[in-house]
Amino acid sequence: MQLTQHFPEQELKDLLEHTCQAIPRDQLHLPGPDAVERLFLPSNRPPQVLRNLAALYGHGRLAGTGYASILPVDQDIEHSAGSAFAPNPIYFDPENILKLAVEGGCNAVATTFGHLALFSRTYAHKIPFIVKLNHNELLSYPNKYDQVLFGTVKDAWNLGAAAVGATIYFGSQESTRQIVEIAQAFEEAHSLGLPTILWCYLRNKAFVKDGKDYHTAADLTGQAIHIGATIQADLVKQKLPDLNGGFTALQFGKSHPAMYDKLTTSHPIDLCRYQVLNGYAGRIGLINSGGESKGEKDLTEALRAAIINKRAGGTGLILGRKAFQCPFKEGVELLNAVQDVYLNKEVTVA
């Protein structure tokens, strides 16, 4: 794919020619074909976890690169099935979710117990399953924002999962319980040989101040990633940062001036690199989320996110709505286009 078709010349030049000077690439542990052995062989992860990590990194169009392209579909619970699937009703049938992940050349599919349990015998050997253990459901009235378990790690293991995923709403009133709950779940997952992926999201109305939404601030999201690595996530998922200074603007927590004037800049690749740094300097791989579907701009936005993540030292994208809220063929093409960024040797780590 010619990236010049999708970006103005100056924007593409800014993305592809930027050099990270605040945190040089040689200070990071970067993705590569030997990532599992290099990053996890010295760890406490059992051999079965290493085997499943290798299976995840060894599947799909990005097999053997150390990068990951994951299809996540949990919006039918996190929002509602109608809002998620109305743009393309074929995905009310969960088999089509699995078909999209397979045809799209993904490393894995991340979705609900219900979706994966129905097709465990027909698809668990075709593509690695990542079972999402918990969800926030919005059918309760009034709406509440709390991630609760929908099943057990043993359930995920029984249906043939290659890994488990979970979300913690850092900053919320419920986050302390969620940290304890998911730390325990991840310990059990590792004991059963399952790698762990944490959605390190922020959630608190107070994180919006003076018209700025600090849920995507580099400093706050970076700390969420750091806590995720601490509870032994093997991969962390986070939204791309688009601003900084959450700790100082909200006047809480602890910060240091160097976080803002030495460790990063306002450039999107530098902001994302600060996220990578917080994942134990890249030892715990960062996968950024693809975000909501906005129609005709989806491909360009997905490519931009992939370029930023890869050049920052990240491990890949976990992209859902942009792929499944469009016609099936277009979804496959979008997933492949994103994967092509990681296969493109001209898109280097900054």
Describe this structure in words.
With 350 residues, the protein is an alpha/beta fold. It has one domain (3-343): TIM Barrel (Alpha-Beta Barrel). The chain is 42% helix and 14% strand. The strands form three sheets. An eight-stranded parallel β-barrel has the order 1-2-3-6-7-10-11-12, surrounded by six helices. Strand 11, helix 14 (298-312) and strand 12 (316-318) form a beta-alpha-beta unit. Helix 13 (268-278) packs across helix 14 and helix 14 packs parallel to helix 16 (328-343). The chain starts with 8 loop residues before the first helix and ends in a 7-residue tail after the last helix. The model has no long low-confidence stretch (mean pLDDT 97).
List the SSEs and their pairings.
Layout: H1 9-17, H2 35-40, H3 47-57, E1 68-73, H4 75-85, H5 94-103, E2 108-111, H6 113-118, H7 120-123, E3 129-132, E4 134-135, E5 148-149, H8 153-158, E6 163-170, H9 175-191, E7 196-202, E8 208-209, E9 212-213, H10 218-230, E10 235-238, H11 246-250, H12 258-261, H13 268-278, E11 285-289, H14 298-312, E12 316-318, H15 321-324, H16 328-343
Parallel strand pairs: 1-2, 1-12, 2-3, 3-6, 6-7, 7-10, 10-11, 11-12
Antiparallel strand pairs: 4-5, 8-9
Helix pairs in contact: 10-13, 13-14, 14-16
Q: And the CATH topology?
A: TIM Barrel
Task: Report the mean per-residue pLDDT as an integer.
Answer: 97
Q: List how many beta strands DSSP finds.
A: 12
Helix/strand-derived category reads alpha/beta
Q: What is the molecular shape?
A: globular
Q: Span from first to last CA?
A: 20 Å
Using only C-alpha atoms, the radius of gyration works out to 19 Å
GO molecular function, one term: fructose-bisphosphate aldolase activity
EC number: 4.1.2.13
Protein name: fructose-bisphosphate aldolase
Pfam family, one: DeoC
